[in-house]
What we know:
Largest sheet of chain B: 16 strands, antiparallel
Largest sheet of chain A: 2 strands, antiparallel
Structural class of chain A: mainly alpha
Strand content of chain A: under 5%
Distance between the termini of chain B: 46 Å
Number of domains of chain A: 1
Number of strands of chain A: 2
Oligomer: heterodimer
Strand content of chain B: over 45%
Amino acid sequence: MSVCLKGMIMLKILLSILTLILICACGKSREELIDDTIEKANILLTSGNCDLAITILEGIGRQTKHFRYLRTLSSAYACKAGYSESVLFGNDLPNISATSVWGSLSSFATSTKMTSPTAKSFTNLITAIEIILYAGGGIPATTEPTVAERSEFIQGTELGDLHTQALYMLISALGMYSYHYGDADNGLKSQRTAGNDCFLDYDETVSLDGIGSDIGTIIIALPGANACSGSVDSGHPDLVTSTDKIARLCEGVFLFNNFRVILSAVLADIGSTVDDFDSLTDVNLVLDAQRVLLLAAKSNMTDVDTVLSRSVCVTENSADTQYIETYFLYYFETLFN
Amino acid sequence: MMTKLLVALFIFLLLSISSYAKEVHYLVRSPKALLMGDAYTALASDEYTLFYNPAILGYHSGVSGNILNFDFGVTNVMNKKDLDRFDDFPKDDAAAMADRILDFPIHMHLGVTPSFKMESFSFSLLANWTSNYILRNRVSPTLDVDFYYDRGFVTGYAYKFGRGGKKTKKGGRTTGMSGSAGVALKHIKREALQGSFPLFGTSILNAIASRDDAGFSKIRNELGYGKGDGWGADTGLQLQYTGSFYDIMSGLSVMDIGHTNFKKVYGIRNVPRQERMVNWGNALQYHFGILDTTFSFDIHPINMPIDFARKVHFGFSADVLGYGVYGGWNGGYLSYGASVNFFIFKLMAGFYGVELGTERREKKGNRILLYLSLLNFSFEP
């Protein structure tokens, strides 16, 4: 028999066996496809290719119960926002001050990226945050994205890590929000060109039934260093004349309420020996104290004080703005400067 | 006609299985194979036979052993771009440190695989420690950890058939076709930590903060380090045509048939299994007096859903009087190296690249290897 013929026989035998093996071999499973896409997206995000990372992740459909997918998709949108967790953790977190919450947050380098209510840096960061907040998939946009809802689908350290990621982004987004609507510069309110003293143009007659007072009285009583203090005050133009006023206010409510909830969850989750969160622990105490004052000042604040969804906030507050005004006065104005 | 159909069906099936993330994790790799592009399934007649194709044991004669052999592997940091990362490396700033090592794959490997062969039987011990780390995602840095420490043994036997390749009384070899079928059994104790951890997430921050005198091991345990042990089996088939001055070889092996699963004995997570891998290799060896040259071509792991181009391996070697040079193409990256072999002593060094991404040439891992083998022996009747 010739060498060529023998070679052909060898080839036939091996190819037959290989073909049988390949027929029996499994193709790519759904889980492998997801893992593969996440891996590819992480490589793209390493090189800063945000758009392609989003395209491939969205291309396989939202995997709302998949911890790594959610992490990666969220960071892909945060990438488009120009956000960096390293910068937030390394540079900004140590500078957060409980004595001037908004002053410190508005001073972050990334805060200046919000040049308008629709700045891509801000809107993409909101998207990134909501991807995590609505983790689980069973939470419609009109439902409150509570910790309990998320923990039905994702638990343990995975939920803890998701919360930490969301917390960092919430801090960054709140920095942008307070920078833009507070017209802040160098940690001080009303320092730039928008011309506003306060976040809002308040209805000073709104009653604070719990303390027998009104908003106007509280504004006058604000410390002199607070630009909003005094009897004639003006709100940011983007929160006064716009038809989107309530939606924009509700962005602040959404960010701040979720920040408070997730901060509490993270602080409960983090070990007492982790000192990177010391400043946030102090902030949490300040916020708790301020909340006590708010709830004492006005009754029925739940429509705004506990709301975690933007759309629910808009629905609950469109007809009557007295609660959201009180909320802004106690949280945003008072804790700035 | 039948062959064409088989080839067409084979290629179709190969291409229909695609894309699997990260580096393929083999149980043990031969240093020589890595320098030959890991195209070694039909060639593994050295001390690593049981990790490539047990059928090749059918072609072993006499008694041989490698008592002390060590292989070391580390990330190749010999290019300027990688060296620059470590200039004025920040010591206390976690974020700055993260920025420096982002996308820099860290690889460390140490292995020993003493082996003994007697005719078609072989027994090999193994202790393999491998750590791979890479920090990815510039936005929310994520640390991919892939740590394995395997210890155990493998034993195998092969049955050879056909008349080709037999030693003649005059010291030559009979020409013709031959084949061999082999099986191997193994028991492995595996310690492993595998996962993707957000660098600034609570799991890593808590793990670092919880460290005490136990130091790194405490962090490791917090992150999900586990131990387990398990039995596994391999099988292979080798076909060979022996000519007067050449050999044509083709080998097929199925390593870790049914996957080698590990029964967890410690830890909070399951110990990652050793995946089944189907390997097909072909080689052509020429023997010109004192010069031996080899050309090899492998496709592996055939059964895994990775980009097809990553499965393609080419290898070349030339040996003259104990000196060897090697080269290859390992699923998209070049490999090369050299060796010195003097009976009881063998030293080998070289460079190779591996794919760390999801498709060919997406993310290269540059590696250096060094292999030292002492107290080798070989006796033939």
